[in-house]
Design a protein that fits this description.
The complex is a heterodimer of chains A (about 210) and B (about 190). Chain A is built from eight helices and no strands. The longest helix of chain B is centred in the N-terminal third of the chain and has 23 residues. In chain B, helix 4 packs across helix 7, helix 6 packs across helix 8 and helix 7 crosses helix 8. Chain B folds into two domains: about 100 residues, RNA polymerase sigma factor, region 2, helix turn helix motif (Rna Polymerase Sigma Factor, Chain: A); about 70 residues, Arc Repressor Mutant, subunit A (Orthogonal Bundle). The chains are: A mainly alpha (about 210), B mainly alpha (about 190).
């Protein structure tokens, strides 16, 4: 094929013809100029890419996404929370089933409360052990949560942990007033479990960063 | 005490550092915050820039990106995994930009050049910005996505739902029109 000036546009649209076009350009000033302008448009276009800092944008998006979660996915639909509740219920049941074995050594039950004194002590002992293990996790996660260069996600975990601590404190004081209330015990177990999971997520997030 | 208080989305501990599209989509479908954060890391800069060129305002561009992420979150359950994730996200973004333009009754107007950053008003760059406003919408979009934001023709084809060849042809038409506007003396 004999490449002529009129073929340049066709070559620009069709990369297969570019080798021929390059040869022609070497000898034709008009086409060389056309080709230069063509490339300059592309080169200048790259400078039009516009970048600027938007420190709040991700935070806003995250807030939007979290706001979507609440109505769409209530905690009662969360399988993890259900699993936690079942574990807590099993714990209560286990404590209850152990009661007849130790019953002869304890004073007669009034039969009014769901948990006996003995079962309650069992639950209290388990709770104390669980609480200690969570405190250990908290100590491990502390540097991540308090780091100056902590990513924004950790701020949300910090908020969540503060809320959970407040809720745990409130529920514990309710339990202290009404120690035989099984649903309060279950709620407390749920809160501990949620706190443990959150701390584990903080630690995982720290490992990733 | 209620559980509705702002609990974070699941973080997505299973997401690898460099996830594939399929892994990202699966993680997004599980509602994992980390997956959306990853999408943001990967695409937000180009999304902001593209929205800025369509809306001519950084504030509007950021709002459009925010809106796009919310739509991605709501619609990801129905995302078909045989299409490209990036194309889908950019398509949502462009639709958000058009919604913004419609809301602001700006469709009849062209973006105000005065809102472009001052430092860009130099020589060919500003001439090109001005010339871009004279292109028809599809040519302009292809040019912005390919030449300015560096998307591939395969991605652009996915965004605009046209064959790849059409994307190439529209880019050629766009550049030809721009060259004409930039080199021919004004009448």
């Amino acid at each position: 094929m004999i490449f002529e000036c009129g073929d340049l546009e066709r070559a620009l649209a069709n990369p297969e013809l570019m080798a021929e076009a390059q040869r022609h350009i070497r000898t034709c000033e008009t086409c060389r100029n056309e080709y230069r302008v063509w490339n300059e448009i592309s080169n200048t276009a790259k400078q039009l890419h516009s970048e600027w800092e938007s420190p709040d944008l991700w935070l806003k998006i995250r807030r939007d996404l979290q706001a979507q979660v609440r109505p769409a996915k209530g905690w009662w639909l969360d399988r993890k929370i259900w699993a936690g509740a079942i574990v807590a219920a099993a714990l209560v049941l286990f404590a209850f089933l152990r009661w007849p074995v130790s019953a002869p050594n304890t004073p007669a039950s009034t039969g009014k409360d769901f948990l006996t004194e003995q079962a309650f002590k069992e639950v209290e002992k388990n709770e104390a052990a669980y609480r200690r293990s969570i405190e250990d996790l908290s100590r491990l996660a502390k540097p991540e949560l308090e780091g100056k260069a902590a990513p924004p996600i950790l701020a949300s975990y910090r908020e969540k942990l503060l809320m959970l601590d407040a809720a745990i404190q409130e529920t514990r004081s309710n339990v202290a007033q009404n120690p035989f209330n099984a649903s309060l015990q279950t709620e407390l177990a749920d809160l501990y479990r949620e706190k443990r999971q959150t701390l584990e997520e903080v630690l995982k997030s720290g490992q990733r960063n | 005490m209620t559980w509705e208080i702002g609990l974070p989305l699941p973080f997505g501990a299973t997401l690898p550092d460099n996830p594939t599209d399929a892994e990202l989509v699966a993680s997004c479908k599980r509602g994992e915050l980390r997956a959306f954060e990853k999408l943001y890391e990967l695409h937000a800069a180009r999304m902001k820039s593209l929205a800025f060129h369509l809306l001519a305002s950084r504030g509007d561009a950021e709002d459009a990106v925010q809106e796009a992420f919310l739509k991605v979150y709501k619609a990801v359950g129905g995302f078909e995994e045989n299409s490209a994730l990036s194309s889908w996200i950019y398509r949502i973004l462009i639709n958000c930009c058009y919604d913004t333009l419609r809301k602001k009754h700006r469709l009849a107007e062209k973006p105000m050049l005065s809102e472009f950053p001052i430092e860009s008003k130099l020589g060919l760059k500003v001439a090109l910005e001005r010339a871009l406003l004279g292109l028809n919408e599809r040519h302009r979009l292809v040019f912005l996505m390919f030449e300015v934001e560096g998307l591939k023709h395969s991605e652009i084809a996915g965004v605009l739902e046209v064959p790849e060849g059409t994307s190439r042809a529209w880019l050629f038409e766009a550049k030809r029109a721009l060259k004409q506007m930039l080199t021919e003396p004004r009448k």
